[in-house]
Amino acid sequence: MTTQRQWLINGQPRGRAVTEDDFLLHEAELAPLASGEARVRVQILSFDPSQKGQMENVGYAAATGIGQVMTARGIGEVVESRCESLKVGNKVIGQLGWQEFATVSPTSASVVPDDELLTARLGPLGGTGLTAYFGLLRNGHPEPGDMLVVSGAAGATGSVVGQIGKMMGCTVVGIAGGQDKCAWLTDDLGFDAAIDYRGESVKARLKQLCPQGVNVFFDNVGGTILNDVLARIALHARVVICGGISRYQADVLPPGPANYMNLVFMRATMSGFLMTDYAAESPQALERLTAWVREGRIRYREDMQEGFERIPATLLRLFSGENFGKQLLRL
Amino acid sequence: MTTQRQWLINGQPRGRAVTEDDFLLHEAELAPLASGEARVRVQILSFDPSQKGQMENVGYAAATGIGQVMTARGIGEVVESRCESLKVGNKVIGQLGWQEFATVSPTSASVVPDDELLTARLGPLGGTGLTAYFGLLRNGHPEPGDMLVVSGAAGATGSVVGQIGKMMGCTVVGIAGGQDKCAWLTDDLGFDAAIDYRGESVKARLKQLCPQGVNVFFDNVGGTILNDVLARIALHARVVICGGISRYQADVLPPGPANYMNLVFMRATMSGFLMTDYAAESPQALERLTAWVREGRIRYREDMQEGFERIPATLLRLFSGENFGKQLLRL
């Protein structure tokens, strides 16, 4: 074993959709380890919409360039080590990238227990869980009795947002694409209602489900869904912008929500956040999220794809909405 | 004197521009006064963009209907009275309407001193001053050293916002239409810079004037100006939506700001407010504003038109940007 396969970035999808052609399959030599490094066999990769932003080299994510291995968080096993704290056989989590083997150090990867929550650390007990937690609590300021609406509700972030909202005594309405996702929200996660934006009029259903207006809206989608919810916000509503998945693959920057002036009439707030701003509080948040997952108060679903060759196609599932739950892939 | 002239609402300009045809000149009998009422000769009328919203019967303003006298705040003199607290000869301020004589009571009009600040009570010492005060302080949260950008900066609200910002140690950039307005902002009001959106590229000038980004944006305009400023907001910026004058005369609801996702990257907030929410604190705010005006720390400018027959045309000046300072009309 002296070589490995990698997926390199082959294009910068700025102002256009990312496609499989933006990645190039590459065979690389395995370099010898330096002191303090370990070699990790990549086992599971995590997929996130922000990865497209990284490839564009705009926005908040760390820049990546053409010809580099595509970055991605993942879980793997140490197979060779010149580092005391990373032992052969250890499971690690970190920025492993789209490749069969990653060279890591204790600053780029952490050892995690090989237990039943292993993959949850890429989802509800990882960045998506923290995004849900801090976005909802620190920006949404939900109160018992509030009407909380979540878009992208069956996604990794949205599903946690809705469940925390239920724990806090909110009435929770999820917006998702497809009847199976909607059924999961109401039957398994305890959402009060779900709107299938593919089969129903979001506008009409919101009117029916939220007669007093929407107090908190957690938006992962943007586009007409954001605009339709803005039309129904309640006095002093908090609109939390987490993402805009409907916009990311557009060739031309889509317009913003025409109904933004409703923020004035309703004395409401629309705000953005990044979970990285809450690093100091993340250990406490993860402790709470872990307890809630163990107690079954937060449930999650993984969409596990298979095979190294399917990595680029798996990223695209996020933008078409094909993924059902946290998108992962087992190499 | 048994009759008077009035301007009645003759159309609901919803989804289209308001025009002079939306008003109908009418001759009405002067009704006898009931006990507790007084008759006021209307002397000065105040004009505000929200008056179009009132005519549309949407949004926050009190509904008005076709055939009613157009509502408006104004100043007048009591000419006949059956009310102890409203004496003949008193100057009063209140909802007088587009008519030569208004019938008022102590709940709809207040006696004001007939001093040099009389008309200022329709501007910097009235609703527009309070809008500037509470919008900037309670929603913009300006800090010394902040870059504060104001659109509609030569207007009644924007000019007060910028001057309060200067008092607080902000660097203040105003956006206004025309070189004369821009010169007034920098030469008379002490703004650090002004951008003439009619003659300059707002985008290019913002880049030049705000290299560290915009900490507080107070928006009266919307449209491309809002979008261009959103592209340059600083970390944790506060975008205060006060109005959207560029949108009010559109036949189709214009799109929102495409750059709203920058709220996420910059962890920023966009919020709306109405000054009526701060009624409890308005007396204190008016005391402060009055002191600042008397001390010359807040200067204002009035655009005084003349003549009853020119009332409808004067309202339209707000939407074309012809007004320079607080729009008033002397009957």
Structural features, described:
- Two copies of one chain form a homodimer.
- Chain A is of the alpha/beta class and 331 residues long.
- The first copy, chain A, has two domains: 3-122 and 301-330, Quinone Oxidoreductase, Chain A, domain 1, CATH 3.90.180; 127-276, NAD(P)-binding Rossmann-like Domain (Rossmann fold), CATH 3.40.50.
- Chain A is 26% helix and 27% strand.
- Chain A contains nine helices and 15 strands.
- In chain A, the strands form three sheets. In chain A, strands 3, 4, 5, 6, 7, 14 and 15 form a seven-stranded mixed beta sheet that branches. In chain A, strands 10-9-8-11-12-13 form a six-stranded parallel beta sheet, with helices on both faces. A two-stranded antiparallel ribbon of chain A has the order 1-2.
- In chain A, strand 11, helix 6 and strand 12 (233-241) form a beta-alpha-beta unit.
- In chain A, helix 2 crosses helix 3 (156-167) and helix 2 (127-140) crosses helix 8.
- The radius of gyration of chain A is 20 Å and the shape is globular.
- The model of chain A has no long low-confidence stretch (mean pLDDT 95).
- Chain A binds chain B through residues 59-60, 222, 227, 241-244, 247, 253-274, 277, and chain B through 59-60, 222, 227, 241-244, 247, 253-274, 277.
Key features?
homodimer, 331 residues, alpha/beta, Quinone Oxidoreductase, Chain A, domain 1, Rossmann fold, 2 domains, 7-stranded mixed sheet, 6-stranded parallel sheet, 9 helices, 15 strands
